Amino acid sequence: MEWDCRAHALNQGTATMSRLFPGLKASHSMRTRIGLLYLALSIVNIVVLTAMIFENQLDMLRMNFRLQSDKLAGITLAQLEGMDAGKIDELNRIDKLLSDNHVISFTIFQTNGKLLFERKESDKSVLPASGTVSDHIRRKTLQLRDDSTLIQLRYTLDLDEHDYSATYVMPLPASHVEGDQKVFLRAVMRIADFESRFRRLYVQAGFAAGLVFLVHLIFALIVGQIFFRRIGILASTSLELGTGNLDARAQWSMRNHDEIDLLGSTFNTMAVEIQSTVTKITSLNQEMQNELSIGKEVQEKFLPDLTKLKNWNAASYYKPLREVSGDVFMFYEMQGKPGVFFADAAGHGVSAALITSLALLSLERILEHSDNIATVARDLNRAFMAHLKTAMFYMTGVLILYRNGKLHYVNGGHPSPLLLRKDGTLIELMANGPPFGIAPTETYAFESVDCSPGDRILLYSDGLVETENAESRAFGIETVRHTLLEHADSPVQDTVDALSIEFEAFRGYIRDDVSFLYLEIM
């Protein structure tokens, strides 16, 4: 039995690791999964915090914009007092005053909505205008002329927080107007400083987001250094140990004395114990291997030298599943007549080899005072029942004796031997009794068939016909029969070689001892 305990233990360890951590790789590691979770939480944290900061700053900017616009509108109204919009030479002063107060365009109109002058954002100076203002603007003048309100409005102010522009309507002193018409100024003011401050908000928000991200990154690196680095070392060392390096140890400075340090220390202690145990088992296995090698040599001594047989022309194939086999055969003489015993013990390996050894020793003793193979079979069964107290240990076997042109045989539950006569007839010697060691049967009967020199007999174990190929198809008795008939005229050794070659080419994984013995009567 060529079994390397170290390799077996390591393969078991690798299988266990694969079962516990299937497909372990970076994308499935705890470090990656926790890192992704932390990244998601960090992104949420950054987005929420940045949004809060941005919204707060935006509210402050809008409030400041309202206050500043209202202040400028009041200043503009105060500065316009004393100016006369009805005089042409005053219009340039009004234009300059409004430009200084961030006004980008304005119109001057009467109460009835008639336009007098205007300056668009693209114009360089005030120009006369025609047409009327919209009803919406005229309603703004009504608010300024409403005497029913408790508080008299000096001007109206509308804010557009999208582009930080303010539109105000206020009365404008003017002479030379028609009848009782009053003159009003509608100006659009845009404070460039607020636009730049609004753009800076995005920069500040981005800076805040980057700062928060940097804090999270530093925290993640610190946690990774403290926690995941050691976990990673422990995981890689475990895999290294599982794949065969029994010297692998978790190496880091265990000065924190925390749970991970305790885990690493315990792992190293366990690795030392595993290495020690595997070393002991390997040593014991080597001793067992040496003993089995000796047992194999001893068992082979029991097998006869086929070149020295007088009454048989014989050839064999012998392939134990392990070092020692449960298949055995021996030649004997009974009252000067040649006989052969072929047996297959239940199981394989050491236990089966011990059973066959018991059978051979018992058979030699029984043959000393027997003259009938049926009696030999009975006494062999009794010996088995006396020495082996359980039906777990039994043996199938065939006893054959050639005498006076007859082939006498007892088949104790064994696969049927094949008798190939010189005329090409192939018959099976069917089982006529139970296996040895199964039941306390008192008698075995023998049967006889006509036989003559030149006839051939194939004795084989069940491992020959039951061995399967890669497609789970058994070698089968029909293949054996075909090979025997195909080589009926070939020498015995050539027939055994042909059957061996065909079997080796066919077989997949062997699960039992395989042997066969091919005899030609001389």
Shape: rod-shaped
Order of helices and strands: HHHEEEHEEEHHEEEHHEEEEEEHHHE
Side-by-side strand order of the widest sheet: 3-2-1-6-5-4
Q: Describe the sheet with the most strands.
A: 6 strands, antiparallel
Amount of beta strand: 15-25%
Terminal Cα span: 38 Å
Q: Count of DSSP helices? A: 11
Mean pLDDT: 84
Give the strand tally: 16
Describe this structure in words.
The relative contact order is 0.08. This protein has helices at 5-20, 30-80, 88-100, 135-145, 192-242, 259-302, 350-367, 373-387, 462-466, 477-486, 492-506, and strands at 103-110, 115-119, 127-128, 156-160, 165-171, 183-190, 312-319, 327-334, 337-345, 395-403, 406-412, 418-420, 426-428, 447-450, 456-460, 514-521. Helix content is 48%, strand content 19%. It is built from eleven helices and 16 strands. Helix 5 (192-242) packs parallel to helix 6 and helix 7 (350-367) crosses helix 8 (373-387). Mean pLDDT is 84; it is low at 1-11 and 13-24.
Short description:
The protein has 522 residues and is an alpha+beta fold.
Please give a handful of descriptors for the protein shown.
16 strands; 6-stranded antiparallel β-sheet; 522 residues; rod-shaped; alpha+beta; disordered N terminus; 5-stranded antiparallel β-sheet; 11 helices
Give the SSE map:
Blueprint: H1 5-20, H2 30-80, H3 88-100, E1 103-110, E2 115-119, E3 127-128, H4 135-145, E4 156-160, E5 165-171, E6 183-190, H5 192-242, H6 259-302, E7 312-319, E8 327-334, E9 337-345, H7 350-367, H8 373-387, E10 395-403, E11 406-412, E12 418-420, E13 426-428, E14 447-450, E15 456-460, H9 462-466, H10 477-486, H11 492-506, E16 514-521
Helix pairs in contact: 2-5, 5-6, 7-8
